[in-house]
Design brief:
This protein is α/β, with parallel strands linked by helices and about 325 residues long. The protein contains 11 helices and 13 strands.
């Protein structure tokens, strides 16, 4: 039996979506480990993050997506929580010293969704129509496809962004299908966008669990709910990201698929203004997931050039 103490405290952001993900982790863990089914054996701890507090500025100006995980990681360091539950697309490329990713839940629908009460699909939006998004990846991809649209900043949780649509701040927005499904709001999606139309963010749709490296008992515990296929897909996509040294300022897309013992990894890097785009892919054995992702990243980095990444880092 794994060595750990109860209650096992799961740290999470306080949004409806983040809580839905944390409760899914708790429920799956309790289903897999009978001794955790006792009342109070698994506790959900809400941690307020800077990314949730500052909503009037783009993430790129206040520190990037890492602001959604920084305070939760601090709670890990000081022992207020035992494990952090994250949307993997928000987890920075490199984890802080002493912390490690120990498990991922089965991946939800990784696609982006076009959401609008005015237009049935992205292609139906007229010239000059307004699309709201806070994602540099989504903005760059939209600019590449539809340079005639106006892009406005659109931060906040799912409910906040839908309210902004209702209030006419924008004519349409893009949301993750995974989040909508976890909230029971799949009907909100006007047009799910296939990866061929819009390649997802790295690890979009996956929920990960981060712990202290020294907590080997917890690492063993969470292996009960680690989804092997999702783990390999996430490893491949994050290996590509690591080579590209991606930050919140870099529009990077990645998508790994598994078919039997084989894996296909697709990657894309886009200029912020959508004027240039580089794509690459590689197929090979699932066992080589990390190497496949890294090789795609290396070719993308070479194709885009060091000046491209240096300019984004400034």
């Amino acid at each position: 039996m794994s060595e750990y103490r109860t209650p096992v405290k799961l740290g999470t952001r306080g949004s409806k979506l983040a809580l839905a993900q944390a409760y899914a982790v708790r429920d799956t863990l309790q289903a897999a480990v009978p001794e955790l089914r006792e009342e109070g054996a698994v506790e959900i701890v809400i941690v307020s993050t800077t990314g949730d507090q500052i909503l009037d500025k783009p993430l790129t100006e206040i520190g990037g997506k890492g602001l959604f995980v920084k305070e939760i990681e601090e709670a890990l360091y000081d022992g207020r929580i035992d494990a952090a539950v994250h949307s993997m697309k928000d987890v920075p490329t490199f984890l802080p010293d002493g912390l490690t990713l120990t498990a991922v839940m089965e991946r939800e629908d990784p696609r982006d969704a076009f959401v609008s009460s005015k237009y049935t699909r992205l292609g139906a939006m007229p010239r000059g129509a307004v699309l709201g998004t806070s994602s540099v990846r989504r903005a760059a991809l939209i600019k590449a496809q539809r340079p005639d649209l106006e892009i406005v900043q659109f931060r906040g949780n799912v409910q906040t962004r839908l309210k902004k649509l209702e209030d006419g701040v924008a004519d349409a927005t893009l949301l993750a299908m995974a989040g909508l499904r976890r909230l029971g709001m799949e009907h909100v999606a006007t047009q799910p966008l296939a990866p061929e139309e819009m390649l997802p963010a790295v690890a979009q749709g996956a929920v990960g669990i981060e712990i202290r490296e020294a907590d080997t008992g917890l690492a063993e515990l969470f292996q009960h709910i680690n989804h092997g296929e999702t783990w390999r897909r996430v490893i491949a996509e994050r290996a590509m990201l690591a080579v590209l040294d991606g930050s919140c300022k870099t529009p990077i897309c990645a998508y790994a698929e598994i078919d039997g013992a084989g894996m296909r990894v697709r990657g894309q890097v886009v200029a912020l203004d959508g004027s240039q785009s580089w794509s690459d892919e590689e197929a090979g054995p699932v066992a080589d997931a990390e190497a496949l992702g890294a090789r795609v990243g290396e070719r993308l980095r070479s194709a885009a050039g060091e000046d491209f990444f240096a300019a984004l880092a400034d």
